[in-house]
Amino acid sequence: MDNPAPAYSRRDHADYEDDAIRDSFSTAKAHSVKLPFGFHLSDKGLFQDQDDDKGPLLLCGPLEIVAETRDRHSTAWGVLLRWNDNDNQPHQLAVARANLAGDGREVRQLLLHGGLYVAPSIKARNALQTFLASVKIDRRARAVARVGWADGAFALPDRTIGISGGDLVVYQGAGTVDHEYRSAGTLAEWQEGVARHGIGNTRIAIALCAGFVGPLLEAVGGEGGGIHLRGQSSIGKSTALLAAASIWGSPSFVRQWRATANGLEGIAEQANETLLILDELAQLDAKEAGSIAYMLANGCGKSRASQTGDARAARRWLTFFLSSGEISLAEHARSDGRGRRSAAGQEVRILDIEADAGKGFGLFDSLGGLANGDALARSIKGAAAEHYGIAGPEFVERLIGEREAQARLIRQGIDRFANDCQPADASGQVARACRRFGLIAMAGEIATGLGILPWAPGEATGAAKAIFASWLLGRGGAGAAEDGAAIEQIAEFLTAHGAARFQPIDGDGPVVIHNRAGFWRLDPMGRREYLIPATIWKAEVCRGLNVKAVSALLLERRHLFPDNAGKASVSVALPGMGKTRCYIVQQSIFGGDDA
Q1: Which of 180, 290, 364, 538 minimizes the number of CB atoms within 10 Å of its CB?
Q2: Class of 187-304+312-402 per CATH?
Q3: Under DSSP, is residue 408 helix (H, G, I), strand (E, B) or coil?
Q4: What is the pLDDT of residue 186?
Q5: What are the boundaries of each domain within the chain?
Q6: Quick one: average pLDDT of 12-28?
């Protein structure tokens, strides 16, 4: 395919440090700052005048008042500060004034964490709190509580990329300090050490492409969701996760599934429009696996009440996520012993992919000249630990002003992908999944066209096509997921109870079967078939399913023996029961021939 966007010159990450904030610092003195009575700022620090002869009281080191902050609803008011640490490195902090309602300890910790001296005396602390609550400036900034796009700019916890169409945009959320959006190295080093290994390696490529989906979701009207890499331990799943993590941050950008639903809500909110990476699915409580994964894909947390009993706004996010585990999400959800099945829509939103590429190298399709898969994995992991957090922000910066044009290209690319890959008999679920793979492919193509991924055009699309084919094969075809689940449920019932609860219809002598579910016999070809009375069929075998729809499906697949009129149930004389309407299930339901 043609490049979806013109190539841009590559720049070192130091060249795109928060231009909007930096420009605002240089012009901050042009705005009118009104200090509270008795306070003054100098290049020595912030002081409060005293009534005694001891001179002014030093409250903290020198800082700048850049703007007053508030959200789009004119709430969440705060003040944006800027200072340099002892290494002359700049820091910024949007202080939410709501955090000053107590003793202000959290705010002081953030200032100290950023290298600003804060006087330790109680008197100085109280005075600093008064100052931050009272200082005014005629410049305004828009405060956002999560990372991502706002008014054309992209807010990260430590910087804002681009200039919005209105106010300066600044992050004023819970992750101001405790975040993983760190950076090291250069884009060229990351491309050489990490990204180039996606060429010819479909699983690495698809993981890297996933890392660029987040900033595109809103523009294309996409929905949240993700990819789950499934496979045995030591096959290379963590390598794919670390490669993707290096797009936005250090190896610690990979989080664990081992968390409460509340904790994962906070993690997901902080990954808004970037990438959420969760490792080791087995660590998540099986009872909550399905609901939590669906919550992450849906992008909305639980509604909760405040201390006064009023409803608080639920956390929201829009993100793509990458997950790993030794089993699939559906298998893990069923492992709690209650036999739960994930909804078909959930399985489409969370695409389960076999991590083993089937080439004898675990996750990898090729080794790129290295001795073995372990050597390649160690090379990628080592590079991801040294060069990280550059590609994602650079991708966003090159998107600024281009999102609408790119969105059109993405939608066209998704259509092409679907035309090329979607089976003619695809169910609606498979069609949705195909377009989701198309979105992943186009994210990679856009990143290639913008000079972020050092790949040839079409590399991302080729990887996505291969992975979609693998996903379709693992799913069992292009039909509706509910069909496969229904057949699987009935086959599992017969497997579990065939010896204990089914009586041979032609056996010699009396047979005692406790809690009998039905009978079995051999057909003229010597294959076993199961005769299940209609009451048991509806109450147990098809529990939770639409009986009429399942029966029609099994007739169509020739897993049920019909009566002379083509009906799903047959009137059969059963021992001790007489003529009874039964469903006669064929042996083919276990995966044999349909005949």
Answers
A1: 538
A2: alpha beta
A3: helix
A4: 97
A5: 13-171, 187-304+312-402, 481-590
A6: 42
6 phi/psi in degrees, rounded to 5: -65, 150
Predicted local distance difference test score (pLDDT) of residue 484: 72
Do 312 and 265 touch, CB atoms closer than 8 A? no
- Judge if pTM exceeds 0.85: no
Over residues 397-415, mean pLDDT = 92
**DSSP states of 517-535:** -EEEEE-TTS-EEEEEEHH
In this predicted structure, what is the pLDDT of residue 283? 76
**Cα 528 → chain centroid:** 46
How far apart CA 425 and CA 420 sit, in angstroms, is 14
| Pairwise CA distance, residues 568 & 583, whole Å | 7
Q: What is the pLDDT of residue 592?
A: 52
Distance CA 511, CA 252 (A): 63
**Residues 357/373, Cβ–Cβ less than 8 Å:** no
Q: How confident is the model at residue 138 (pLDDT cuts 50, 70, 90)?
A: very high
- Nearest alpha-carbon partner for 521 in 575, 578, 565: 575
pLDDT at 363 over 90: yes
**Residue 468 near residue 434 (C-beta atoms within 8 A):** yes
CA 362 – CA 231 distance, rounded (Å) = 9
| Furthest C-alpha separation in the chain | 113
If DSSP codes are grouped into helix, strand and coil, which group holds residue 511?
A: coil
Task: Identify the sign of the CA torsion 402, 405, 410, 413.
Answer: negative
pLDDT digits (tens, 9 = 90+) for 283-308: 777 777 777 777 888 888 876 555 54
